[in-house]
Amino acid sequence: MRSSRTRDDDAPGADAFLDVVANLVGILIILVMVIGVGAKDEMVQSQEELDAASTSAADIDVEGFRLAAKDAEAHILDIDGKIKQVSAEMERRTRERNQLQAMTLAARAKLDEFKSQLGARRRQEFERNRQLALAQQTLAELQQRRQSLEEAAPPVGVIEHLPTPMAATVLGREEHFRLLDGRLTYIPWETLTERLKEEAPQKAWKLKEAPSITETLGPEGGFLMRYTLVTKQYITPMKVGAAVRQGIELERFVLAPVAENLGEPLEQALSPGSQFLARLSQLDPQRTTLTVWVYPNSFDHFRTLKQELFRRGFLTAARPLPEDMPIGGSPEGTRSAAQ
Fold first, then answer.
1. By CB atoms within 10 Å of each CB, which of 89, 136, 163, 200 scores lowest?
2. Residue 304, helix vs strand vs coil
3. Radius of gyration, CA atoms only, the chain
4. C-alpha span between 309 and 179 (Å, rounded)
């Protein structure tokens, strides 16, 4: 009974275990076969790829690549040569541009010089026209006076005669006066021009921001001086072209009175104790010329003044001015001519 119970208990368990083991072994065999087949396929595919790569490497045209490299090198050299040509052309054009610029500056300077000369000629022409008008007016008055004398009775006594020597350019000391509305006014010409020489260089820095500046100095003796400084170019010819340099020049100046009715009426000025005669007493007639800036409404007064100055031994230079034109000067101006 004991052995019978043992068989009945062990038989079903051993069969199940064997079935499981057999199944596992079968699965392992199948897996091994599948892996082996896959590995074989991979090896075959890798070999084919290696064969294809070998074939492609064999088919590469090495000589073609070498020719292409030579063509690329030749193209690069050609481009480098063109770059050098362009650089040389640019340098040549730059030199031409610099030469043209120097020629342009020289032409502009010549044009400015021509304009200034033209302006000077116009001013001289205007001055000549004024002097001609004054001479014509004087001639008309003389003719009228002559006619009146001829129509009157024969003159008795001595006729006053004022000699009129040839005009000479003033080279010595020169004192300036203004004759306007019959009033004689002293002009501190020398004092103002000396102040101008001292002040102008101190104002030159303003020309860095503008081609010209206008400044005012004074008042001095009842007059203000307004002057204009300009930048001017000078062209110096050289072997390699023209050198351009800049300088500062005085363009012109004018004198403006600070008040009306300056000075003394002429009758008072020629009377004893006047400011005018006090100033004359400090001057040497042999070394001093009196320049009178005279306006049209005071031509008759000027003749009276000239007679008195001649009597005192002074030479007189007349500077006729149109109405409302200020007294002034410029580097292109002319010196006074005294009689």
1. 163
2. helix
3. 57
4. 14
SS3 272: coil
Q: What is the DSSP letter of 206?
A: G
Q: Please list the rounded mean pLDDT of every run of 10 residues in the chain (339 residues).
A: 46 66 80 75 70 57 77 82 84 84 83 74 78 78 67 42 45 83 90 88 82 86 89 71 71 88 89 90 88 90 90 88 86 56
Q: Which residues contact 290 (CB under 8 A, 6 or more apart)?
A: 174, 175, 176, 177, 309, 314, 315, 316, 317
Which stretches within the chain are classed as H helix? 2-59, 62-151, 189-203, 266-269, 275-280, 299-311
Going from the C-alpha of 86 to that of each of 78, 81, 96, the distances in angstroms are: 12, 9, 15
Question: Can you name the residues that pair with 235 across neighbouring β-strands?
Answer: 244
| Residues with Cβ within 8 Å of residue 282, at least 6 apart in sequence | none
Amino acid at 157: G
User: Residue 225, exposed/middle/buried by CB under 10 A (0-12, 13-18, 19+)?
Assistant: buried
Domain range list for the chain: 71-154, 162-338
Q: How far apart are CA 131 and CA 140, in angstroms?
A: 14
Residue in this structure with the two tokens 């005009």, named with its chain if needed: 167
3-state secondary structure at position 281: coil
Strand order from edge to edge, sheet including 212-220: 212-220, 223-238, 241-257, 327-329
User: 216: part of which helix (H) or strand (E)?
Assistant: strand 212-220
How far is the C-alpha of 222 from the C-alpha of 187, rounded, in Å?
8
Q: Report residue 64 as tokens.
A: 């073609």
